[in-house]
User: Fold these one by one.
Assistant:
Number 1:
Amino acid sequence: SQTIHQWPATLVQPVGSPLSLECTVEGTSNPNLYWYRQAAGRGLQLLFYSVGIGQISSEVPQNLSASRPQDRQFILSSKKLLLSDSGFYLCAWSVASWFPNTQYFGPGTRLTVL
Amino acid sequence: KQEVTQIPAALSVPEGENLVLNCSFTDSAIYNLQWFRQDPGKGLTSLLLIQSSQREQTSGRLNASLDKSSGRSTLYIAASQPGDSATYLCAVRGDGTQGGSEKLVFGKGTKLTVNP
């Protein structure tokens, strides 16, 4: 069966510090991968998605970036965090297919920027 | 731009009651609609996915309906239990036509509390 992992589970970082969140998927090959952010009082917002190694699409301009160094690894990064980067970050995967299908979400990372 | 609205934002019911959660979307050019459950501090669990050509989907005590032309979906929960307490999120996937995006757009959710 497929599983998706995220770490760390929680993170408290000062403003201006760098960020690296990791997501890995097991039990499937060539998945589509997604990064979402859930901020207080707002719905989930798609940040990045990837259909293959090195292929990243950005949905929202911001100081965040994403990379996919391996088939089942997706990394969210920032060089300098802002207060507004605080939120709950969720990674998701779906089967790569010509038609959209169910996305499966990881346990999330709670990021607090102080 | 697709917008998804969920009403009510919060709902509290006694155990055993049947209930309906509502979701509306502004752009009817969707490929599918999905209902998720989110427990506090946790990720999302997919409950039901309805393709645009379908009218409803059922799973156990859950039934989701879709009226694409009117931009509405409902999630019906029968015989609610305290374990159903969670936030329920609705999300639509655009079909990419008419310049719309194919990404998944989420509502803000309905927080459900089922009291024993």
Note: The two ends of chain A are 38 Å apart (CA to CA).
Number 2:
Amino acid sequence: DIVMTQSPDSLAVSLGERATINCKSSQSVLYSAKNTDYLAWYQQKPGQPPKLLISWASTRESGVPDRFSGSGSGTDFTLTISSLQAEDVAVYYCQQYYSTYSFGQGTRLEIK
Amino acid sequence: QVQLVQSGAEVKKPGSSVKVSCKASGGTFSNFNVSWVRQAPGQGLEWMGRIIPIVGIPNYAQKFQGRVAITADRSTSTVYMELSSLRSEDTAVYYCARHPAGAFEYWGQGTLVTVSS
């Protein structure tokens, strides 16, 4: 099974500042034949189901603000929020779908 | 617009079983994966298994093999997840999610299952 590890577990950032969340997989999730990483990012707010933000490591879903971006390849990935807004307070999860499915443990993002 | 509507909250005794439903509306149902993901109180997301209704053959996470059964009824666009031999550690919110081969695009609202004597 592929284990996903996020860092940090929690993060406090000032409004308007950059937030960076890291995700590392225990093995590569890059499908070489398609040169595509099978990695997604989700946002979950209290009492709600997760919301898909980014798939294929860097493809933003329709309607997701462009302050959210994903990067990385192979085993190391990053979710960046370029200018933190109050509504971005949530828990963020990475997920691999290269080999069945598994999630990181989550990163709690708060306002400093 | 795709909507997944799950059945209501359940309270179960240890050792019993629970069956949660996930009814889809809007969009195509049979050709996509439907996965079940659970979230214990204050914890992260845990994938349990999936089914493609048109195929009807489920895949389960090893942790739940032998204790979970995922089925689909194409006539009603409903997927079911049954978990047996319940224990207190199974207390969680259970979500269904519809997705292609990749990320989980659409999620149900969640069903709280409480296991308590």
Note: Chain B is about 0% helix and 50% strand.
